[in-house]
Amino acid sequence: MNKVAVSGLGITPFGKHENTSIKTLLMDACLDALREANFPKIDAVYIGNIMSGSLCNQEILGAITVNDLGLGSIPAVKVEGACASGGIAFRQAFLMIQNGEYENVLIAGVEKMKHATTEESTRAINAAMDNDSNEKHAGLTFPGFFGMLANRYFYETGASKKHLAMVALKNREYAMNNPIAQFKKPTSLEEIMNARIITDPLGLFDCSPTTDGAVAIVLSKGEKGVIVRASAQASGRTQLQEAEDILSFPAIKESANRAYHIAGLGPEDIDVVELHDCFSMTEIIAIEELGFFKKGSGWEAVELGLTKHGGKAPVNTSGGLLSKGHPIGATGLAQIYQIVSQLRGTSCNQVEGANIGLAQNLGGTGAYSTVHIFEGVN
Amino acid sequence: MELIQVYECARCEKQFVQRKWICPNCKNNEFLKKNISGEGRVFSHTTIHVSTKEFSHLTPYSVALIELSEGLRVTGRVTDQVAIDDKVKCISYFDNTYVFAKC
After folding, report:
1. Is B96 on the interface with A (CB under 8 A)?
2. Can the peptide bond before residue A179 be classed as cis, meaning omega within 30 degrees of 0?
3. What are the tens digits of pLDDT across the range A355-378?
4. Min Cα separation A208/chain B (Å)
């Protein structure tokens, strides 16, 4: 099987792009990635996106990318896996190179959400739940799902709203150094804890924002630079009422275990992590499910600062979804962008000597998870 | 009190609030519809302050995960502010929505 390396990265600023179309965002990120890779002959295109149809009335993003970048008549695919669309698109491209079908693949993720009202975007995000169910009819929203998790987590552990705020504050402090991040304004635990409630106990700072933005990556057959050591994916529950343990995400755990097994590595070998903090609560559960901390103890690790520089492994040095921003279909690739930058030694919030990095991308209410492990090879 | 309609696997008797086509437990594909007691306790809950247009007339409203006395969990709307472990019962079922109230 072929080894696969990252040969190009491109990213747009995250935030509001009022006068830029979804197509232009996508093309800008792709051009940057292709330029960095020195314009190799691209064999296929994979796009991660979930709501270009519902919010922008625009599909065929794959074929548009091929056409407007002059890539000939190569195949193109749009991948939908809710918030894990980017991670899944990346995995499909990786597998195709690993198995010898392609040599160079362009992967891009994009979302344009800021022009929609909160009601419209909440509705579009709710498409990532099983809407033919009594849960949807009860009025459970996407944030509401994670609010329910948080209340139960507080009940079963010693955690409180302060621990959620510590996650949000850490990620904001990292975002302040990330030039592309959506939120760079300093904040405080007090401001975070007193912000307006979205869904009890989650306040505004506990929830990732709506974001416009795009990321592109060129993957190539190769053994030098930053290589993909493992790619894994798993599916999980689509309804809260069917979860055996609501404080566990079996898809995260399973995808992580598969990735560790493929790489022959464990959580103790990871130098830097990007994980899916769609809500502050999700980060605490993810650090447990990825094996960095024992189940039910993630909040204590946060309190002890073990998820920052100088701790066990810095988590979300990009600012995470919470403060870097969450253009849904691009998020999985934005995480990989940050890990690759860390392993190249060119990142914001650089972790000194980082050699092995992990990116975990979650879709829906635990419906999809991908885990990728990378290594810097000189 | 309203009963909760469940789908019970005809072979292994595992119950589901929502229909399954193949039983994830035993791979059988036949299910029986049954009604079970709508009494239970709050397993977790949240009060939603930002909703979709469809629910804006209710906002803020509370949704809870109820653990029924027979062990199955069901998500429903609750009429009052609730806390974990509060005893509740199902008081209505309409338009695929279960509504629970404190006992």
Report:
1. yes
2. no
3. 999 999 999 999 999 999 999 998
4. 14
**Statement: the pTM of the whole predicted model exceeds 0.95:** yes
Please, which residues bridge with residue B40 across strands? B68, B88
Q: In B, residues 6-35, which contact A (CB 8 Å cutoff)?
A: 16-18
CA distance A122 to chain B (A): 6
B60 preceded by cis ω (within 30°)?
A: yes
Q: Which of B16, B36, B49, B68 to mutate to test the interface with A (most CBs of A within 10 A)?
A: B49
* pLDDT at residue B70 greater than cutoff 90: no
Using alpha carbons, select from A202, A299, A282, A207 the residue that is nearest to residue A246. Answer: A282
The per-residue pLDDT for range A275-318, each reduced to its tens digit, is 999 999 999 999 999 999 999 999 999 999 999 999 999 999 99
Tens of pLDDT along A227-249?
Answer: 999 999 999 999 999 999 999 99
Cβ pair A144:B76 closer than 8 A? no
Burial B34-54 (b: 16+ CB within 10 A, else e): eebebbbbbbbbbbbbbbbee
Q: Which CATH architecture has domain A4-117+211-221?
A: 3-Layer(aba) Sandwich (3.40)
Backbone angles phi, psi at A70, to 5 degrees: 60, 45
Residue reference for tokens 């405080």: A188
Q: Which two tokens stand for residue A208?
A: 């990732």
Determine the Cα–Cα distance for residues A110 and A211; give it in Å rounded to an integer: 10
Residue B100, amino acid: F
Task: Report CB contact under 8 Å: A138, B98.
Answer: yes
Catalytic residue numbers of A? 83, 326
pLDDT-derived band at A256, boundaries 50, 70, 90: very high
Mean pLDDT over the full length of chain A: 97
- The answer to ipTM > 0.95 is yes
